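BUG: 3D viewer hangs when loading the predicted structure for this chain

Environment: internal workstation, default settings.
Expected: structure renders.
Actual: progress bar stalls at 90%.

Input used:
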Amino acid sequence: MDLSPIADMKFETALAELEDIVSRMEEGKLELDASIAAYQRGMALMQHCQGQLNAAESEIRVLENGELREFEPAGKAGDA
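Structure tokens produced before the viewer hung:
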């Protein structure tokens, strides 16, 4: 398992590693120590991803003048 520093990871990279950890844990083939280490790494990855999502939401609020608006896919606004 690659133990790259989590703080330097892009969202997509961290999410892919988190999905891999979940998959390996669901298989139930990890020894206890490996399961605990995987759980700790997974929690750190999850917190990192959540932090990046929160930062993106904050940036969107700034771009929308402080108002978080519902996303409307192109071509859907005003269709009736």
